[in-house]
Amino acid sequence: MGFARYEFQLVLLRRMADFQPELVAAAREQVGATHARYLAAHNRWQTLLHSRRAPAGLDLYRAVLGPPEDVRDRPWGDLVVAAHTWPLAGLWPDLRWEVLVGAGGGVLNGWLVRSAGSPVPELPAVDRLAPWSCVVGDVAARVPEVRVGEPDAPHRWRLDAPGYRLVFVHGLLQLTQVD
């Protein structure tokens, strides 16, 4: 049985469980995944990441997720990168998995983003943002005073707003902390 978009969603949930175990459990139930299947997907992904025989970088995402839905050039800091996006069935219908690829072909980042053409939602005040309600790009578009902070682990992003620290995993909001 191949690894695909369904299992990839379970992999994304694994890191989110550190912050939102109740939301992750509900999401697993929503997509009909047992705890064992969820852990098996994570273990299989880790095996693929560390295998000498498995494809690497963008080729791994293509092997797992199929051809991207869209590929666009996108500014990223001082660079222009290729943004490859895939829909993920089930949990986040308005979001896409995006992989940013540099000029040399290396993967620079992978995260959940709002799908092209999907409007950025209106957001409440920063202190009222709910977990899983927005992605990094939504907050950056709606809260001009936000600044990128130093993440404390791979797959995490941190945005600092006046008085608050927002923690994202795979680009999806997990936690709003008083700074």
Question: Which assembly state applies to the chains in this document?
Answer: single chain
Order of helices and strands: HHHHEEEEHEEEE
Work out the strand percent.
25-35%
* Low confidence ranges: none
Q: Which descriptor suits the 3D outline? A: globular
Strand order of the largest sheet: 1-2-3-4
Number of helices: 5
Distance between the termini: 46 Å
Give the rounded overall mean pLDDT: 93
- Taking Cα atoms only, what radius of gyration do you get, to the nearest Å? 16 Å
Which percent range fits the helix content?
25-40%
Largest sheet: 4 strands, antiparallel
Number of domains: 2
How many strand segments? Answer: 8
Determine the structural class based on helices, strands and strand pairing. alpha+beta
Provide a brief overview of the structure.
About 30% of the residues lie in helices and about 30% in strands. The protein has 5 helices and 8 strands, in the order ααααββββαββββ.
Q: What's the structural blueprint in terms of helices and strands?
A:
Blueprint: H1 5-16, H2 21-30, H3 35-50, H4 57-65, E1 70-76, E2 79-87, E3 95-101, E4 107-114, H5 136-142, E5 147-149, E6 156-161, E7 164-169, E8 172-178
Helix pairs in contact: 1-2, 1-3
